[in-house]
Amino acid sequence: MKQFITTIVIVTFTLPLFAWNNHAGITYLILKDHWKGKSAPKVKVESLKSFLTKEKTSIQDSLSISEEWALKRLSHLTPTDDSLKFSKSTKDSELVVSFYKALRVNPNHKAALYIQSVPKRNGTKLSLNQLTTLNDKGKLGNETFLSLQEGQMIGADEVLVTATDEPDYDLDLYLFEDSGSEVGKIYGFGSQPFGNPAVEFSSQAPFHMGFYYEPGIIFALAGFLKRTYPEYRIHQFTELSNLAFRTGHPYWGYRFAGWALHYIQDLTQPYHSSVLPRVSAGKQIGVQLVSIVGYQSPKDDMIRFISGRHTLIEEYQYYLIRNLIETKNWNHPVASSITDVSSRGRIEWQGIDFLRNNVCKEAYDAAEPADEQLEHLEIPKYETLYEPNHPIHTILGSLLQNTSKHTRAYLNALKTN
Question: CA distances (Å), 160 to each of 163, 322, 327, 402, 408, in order?
Answer without folding.
Answer: 5, 17, 22, 18, 12
